[in-house]
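Two proteins were folded this term; both appear here.
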Amino acid sequence: FSPSVLGTREHWDAAYERELQTFQDTGDAGEIWFGEESMARVIRWLGKQKVPLDSSVLDIGTGNGVLLVELAKSGYTNLTGIDYSPSAIQLSEKVRDKEGMSNITLKVEDFLAPSAELSGFEICIDKGTFDAISLNPDNAVGKRKQYLRSLCSVLKPEGFFLITSCNWTKEELLNEFREGLEILEELPTPKFCFGGRIGNSVTALVFQRK
């Protein structure tokens, strides 16, 4: 991928500062990455697998925290969201408090340098964070490798990793996460047709930690 400002902390700090101001002005929580269907897809899968409602869930790069709010509304009780942007965490705290979801824990954390207490999660969810890391102008390849190391340190053995990406194909993601994880299934995502070929604008995969 070409390096992009979308891979920099400065970009996301500025973006979430704007969204924080908008929320304070209008009550609008801002953009939902990959749309509401992407959240419903994750929640449907967890329900289908009968994942216990008290399972520990980590949302990697939580942004405005809306996914965690939806999980809480679906009955999940052990929810943590992290983001390296303090503005994102401020926004997600305001969204959480507005919705009255006190069982959501939010922390400013850089997933590429996780703190010691960030461990033992049974479910890790990523909607676009790995995509953003892949666009970092400063050693994106090294950061992707560190992402995998961090993931394997915070996710319990046998734990599930659900990733949604618009930059990576299924085959590419299988290659990126082949060490320490195995693919369980590909989740259905919207298809499009262009020039007679059918493709997916988004890839959603479920891995299990070995």
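Next, the second protein.
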Amino acid sequence: APINAAFVCLSLGTVSTVSFLGRGAAVAQDPVTFSGRSLLAARVDELGSKPFTRNEIIGFAVGSVSSVLYLCSRVPQIYTNYKRKSTIGVSYSLFALVMLGNSLYGLSVLLKNPEPGQGEGSYVLHHLPWLVGSLGVLSLDVVISFQFLAYRRGGRPGTREERDALLSEQGDS
């Protein structure tokens, strides 16, 4: 409960700070020249994608592999929790902090303005592996959070796999 409360407070504080700072910048600048962040709202003249450079293609490929590996990292834990009907031995603090980190990272990528001459759609396309990695893993961490809620009480008694000794007795061969 304290970690959940901290997560909610930090999330709300971040969102309100970002919106407050955005309003302050709008007042300080000339309203005619101020260009606010219109998330994923590409205008007709910005629909053309900026082509990838060779370095960007390599970075995109490495980022895509990284994103897939990062997404696959949660599947064994979800499966193990489901099979055991228990989350004993799994640190919820770890998942809560990773959820906060992935939320803030995904938000930072989405709130960054594209470079001059780059449309919003092109910007999102160029950063897609990192968005999928952070926000995709966030969704899998939400599944693990639901498992913590579902399996927090009762559940099945430990399976044979959980009761077996990790190391054999000295007399065993």
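The radius of gyration is 22 Å. The helical segments are 2-28, 54-72, 75-84, 92-111, 120-126, 128-150, 160-163. These notes refer to the second protein only.
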